[in-house]
């Protein structure tokens, strides 16, 4: 990634460079069909799990898919896909995304010296890095780009939605407890203010799947996802339980929708997919 540059004093040169970067970004985005941003106002709700398995589900459905991890301070996509230590290749300023299970994957985690390296960046640097992860990557022709955002409504999700210039769609992730609803509602209001259509809400950790009998038992309070969906008039896409196969898939660096498609959680994603695909048709 390029470092912050010192001012040369040549304002016309800066303007030309900015215009060139904007043109490159527009050219890249013009080759991508739909851009789905996975977000939540609350941390620890499983956004990366949803983003990775949503992207994998779309790829399994025969779609050309990219997966972009913009969680700059805690990138987990490389770990979840068993891609730690992958060295990026490229030609000049253009980076080649990593191939994984039919998906093109890019994360700031690929650019760090080690998985333990701390990313200590202020807002302007974050914004520039996100621009480069969008514009300076050879995404090529994609049907979908799934973007995994960090929690909150700050620099990262705001920058992504602004760079996508009205073409972003959102999937919001929550947990079942009402205590999560206040934070998650901030993301729904964020989308409303920016004019980002919400495809729906995923309620994660919704019950526990017994590894022996497969029965789903509620272990937390429930209803946050359903209540938010009703309050904001958006679909409840699915209720994803706490399922041992999700942990097994994550530990193995393999999306569980590939390994355990017939599991309770795998079927939740299978049921979600038509609504995701139809969301784009409704938008047109």
* Sheet with most strands: 9 strands, mixed
Examine the coordinates and then state which fold CATH places here, giving the name of the CATH topology. Rossmann fold
Q: Element order, helices and strands? A: HEHEHEEEEHEHEHEEHEHHH
Query: What is the structural class?
Result: alpha/beta
CATH superfamily: P-loop containing nucleotide triphosphate hydrolases
Radius of gyration: 19 Å
Q: Under the CATH scheme, which architecture would be assigned?
A: 3-Layer(aba) Sandwich
How far apart are the termini?
Answer: 36 Å
The overall average pLDDT, rounded, is 88
CATH class division: Alpha Beta
Taking pLDDT < 50 over at least 5 consecutive residues as the criterion, the unreliable ranges are none
Overall helicity: 40-55%
Beta-strand residue percentage: 15-25%
Domain tally: 1
Describe the structure.
This protein is an alpha/beta fold. It has one domain (33-283): P-loop containing nucleotide triphosphate hydrolases (Rossmann fold, 3-Layer(aba) Sandwich), CATH 3.40.50.300. The chain is built from ten helices and eleven strands. The chain has helices spanning 11-29, 47-60, 77-80, 123-135, 155-163, 178-194, 224-232, 244-252, 256-259, 264-283; strands at 32-39, 65-69, 89-91, 94-96, 98-100, 103-107, 142-148, 168-174, 198-209, 216-217, 236-242. Strand 3 and strand 4 (94-96) form a beta hairpin.
What topology does this entry show?
Blueprint: H1 11-29, E1 32-39, H2 47-60, E2 65-69, H3 77-80, E3 89-91, E4 94-96, E5 98-100, E6 103-107, H4 123-135, E7 142-148, H5 155-163, E8 168-174, H6 178-194, E9 198-209, E10 216-217, H7 224-232, E11 236-242, H8 244-252, H9 256-259, H10 264-283
Parallel strand pairs: 1-7, 1-8, 2-6, 2-7, 8-9, 9-11
Antiparallel strand pairs: 3-4, 5-6, 9-10
């Amino acid at each position: 990634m390029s470092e912050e540059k010192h001012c040369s004093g040549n304002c016309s040169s800066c303007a030309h460079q900015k215009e060139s970067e904007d043109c490159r970004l527009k050219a890249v985005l013009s080759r991508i069909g739909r851009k789905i941003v996975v977000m939540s106002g609350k941390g620890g709700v499983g956004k990366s799990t949803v983003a990775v398995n949503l992207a994998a589900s779309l790829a399994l459905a025969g779609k050309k898919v990219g997966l972009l991890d913009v969680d700059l301070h805690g990138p987990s996509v490389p770990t979840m896909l068993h891609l730690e230590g992958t060295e990026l290749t490229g030609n000049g300023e253009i980076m080649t995304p990593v191939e994984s299970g039919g998906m093109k994957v890019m994360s700031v985690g690929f650019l760090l010296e080690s998985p333990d390296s701390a990313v200590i960046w202020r807002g302007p640097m974050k914004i520039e890095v996100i621009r480069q992860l969008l514009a300076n990557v050879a995404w090529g022709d994609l049907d979908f780009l799934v973007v995994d955002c960090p929690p909150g409504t700050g620099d990262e999700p705001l920058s992504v939605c602004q760079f996508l210039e009205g073409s972003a769609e959102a999937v919001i992730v929550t947990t079942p407890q009402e205590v999560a609803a206040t934070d998650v509602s901030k993301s729904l209001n964020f989308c409303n203010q920016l004019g980002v259509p919400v495809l729906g809400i995923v309620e994660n950790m919704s019950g526990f799947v017994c590894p022996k009998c497969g029965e789903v038992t509620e272990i937390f309070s429930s209803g946050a996802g359903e209540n938010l969906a009703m309050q904001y008039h958006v679909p409840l896409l699915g209720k994803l339980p706490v399922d041992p196969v999700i942990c097994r898939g994550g530990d193995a660096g393999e999306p569980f929708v590939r390994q355990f498609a017939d599991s309770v959680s795998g079927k939740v994603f299978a049921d979600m997919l038509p609504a995701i695909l139809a969301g784009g048709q409704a938008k047109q």
